[in-house]
Amino acid sequence: MAQSVWGTCSLFFLIQSVLGTSLYLAKRDEILTQEASHYSGIDVPLKGKEWAVNDVIMTLKNSEISEGRRTSDFPPAVHFFHALPYIDKSKVFEIIKLMPKGAALHIHDNAITDINWLIKNATYRPHCYVCFTHARGNILFHYYDNQPTDNNTCEWKLVETERANSGDAEAYDQMLYDKISMITDDPHTAYPNQQIVWDYFNAYFAAVDGLVFYADVFKDYFRQGLQQFYDDGIQFMEVRALLQPTYELDGTTYNSEHTLLEYEAVNTEWLNDHQHDSMGSRIIFTSIRSSTNEVINNVINLAMELHSKYPNFMKGFDLVSQEDDGHPLIYFLEELLIPTQAGKDLPYYFHAGETNWQGTETDENLIDALMLNSSRIGHGYAATKHPEVLLELKQRDIPLEVNPISNQVLKLVDDLRNHPASTLLADGYPIVVSSDDPATWGSTPLSHDFYEMFMGIASAKADLRLLKQLTTDSIKYSTLLEEEKASCMDMWSTEWDIFLDKVLEMYNITDWENYVPAPTETTITDGAAKLLCLNITPIILAIIMVNT
Fold it and tell me: What is the spatial distance between Cα 320 and Cα 313, in angstroms, rounded to a whole number?
């Protein structure tokens, strides 16, 4: 198609010089039209109400982009910690918050619920102890029946007593928040390179694990996470979970299956309360990629067992943690082939290509993820550097789970306009938007990531059709069964109509039933251009002969 567009007319520039700019501009419009035909969402149909809302969104989007071009203060172009107050004031963000977003397909178990909930709820429970380690001032929590006497590694102090002794409970709680969260006033100084930012990222999980996996807190934490994602317009969520042991006050610990059943119990209770507007959650079992082969062998066998016993809740397996610093997928090839060789079903959802590097074991994880038949690819940041990977993604309709804010905070990209997903959207690759670990950097469950995708990564011309494509694709590519996907789409559709009405009411648009979208620019067709060339070529030839 590109060759026919660019090569329609010979003597193109000579024609332009003789007949002026009209043919040149027509030809240019044709090329832009052909480019637009590849863009994600371009074929999504909109009805009258949607076109009216689209005009609202695009007016606001164009205004924010124009202001960003004028002032150079464009939120997606700067670090999220600096951009956050500006995004929260954005009219586009206000609309995105209202929008039903379908499914969040790439989130991690102990980073889904806001840190403030942990502090105001979990740390106010009896027997909560805190200690401050010497490594970067890291903080740890644990629940004990009595204060530990072995303080060789950490001096445990009762939070209740420390808070009372501080004389200012609010200031003390803010100190705890600052110790747990990655948010900082100067992220470029605090996190000068990827290794340091990952050190702090890992410190977050070390800090919250003692809170989250305490048996008395665990189910409440997950229930609160479900609520917060629901409040942010998500109809369904898939959680990457290590299925870590939960523990009791007396030190009793439970195994991975018990943790899975606790998740399922909360999910069942949630679904009973939200039969008409939520599909709840499912679990993707994970293990750390720096583990030994023996550990992964045992985990794979456990994953097969759990998937066999709970096939509609434990949906598959993944390897997580810093990809550059862990073992590549091929290191565990024998272990990852166990299900296939045993004739067992264990779907894979691998993190792969979460790296800036090219030609390394890390970005080559993309090759192995596809060869191992991963149903989706987590991040896939390096995919645009691998043409064969791109070919497979499109031919096999395998989506990338793109997490814009995570990629920026963890220093893969500074300016989200330069995110490789821009290229993928421009050529219609399957993509779903997710948020990875929103609690860690203080973002909403999904709205902030959608804003960054829509305003920074996507084209300035991308409109409501892209947003609709991304939300419905998240359901399409989920682990839900086909009949469950249909139910989820019905829920989303109901919420989508409510969303449209809210936007129309906000902007006092009442005549949408007769709304006609602005006509697109008239472009010359390929056939018409050829015909025009044939008609004027004799004139050009005559001119050439006269001039020679």
Answer: 20
The DSSP 8-state label assigned to residue 479 in this structure reads S
Extents of the domains making up the chain:
2-74+502-547
- pLDDT tens digits along 477-502: 999 999 999 999 999 999 999 999 99
Q: Are 197 and 409 in contact (CB under 8 A)?
A: yes
**387-425 pLDDT, tens digit each:** 999 999 999 999 999 999 999 999 999 999 999 999 999
Q: Please give the Cα distance from 531 to 201 (Å, whole number).
A: 61
Q: How many angstroms from the chain centroid is the CA of residue 304?
A: 27
Structure tokens, 360: 């390394």
- What is the tens place of the pLDDT at every residue in 181-210? 999 999 999 999 999 999 999 999 999 999
168's CB contacts (< 8 A; 6+ apart) are none
What is the mean pLDDT of the segment spanning 144-156?
83
> 16, 3, 265, 220: which is closest to 124 by C-alpha?
220
Nearest to 208 by CA among 232, 234, 182: 182
Phi and psi (nearest 5°) for 141?
-130, 150
Q: Which residues are catalytic?
A: 354, 379
Query: C-alpha angle 109/111/116, rounded to 5°?
Result: 130
Query: Token pair for residue 546?
Result: 């006269």
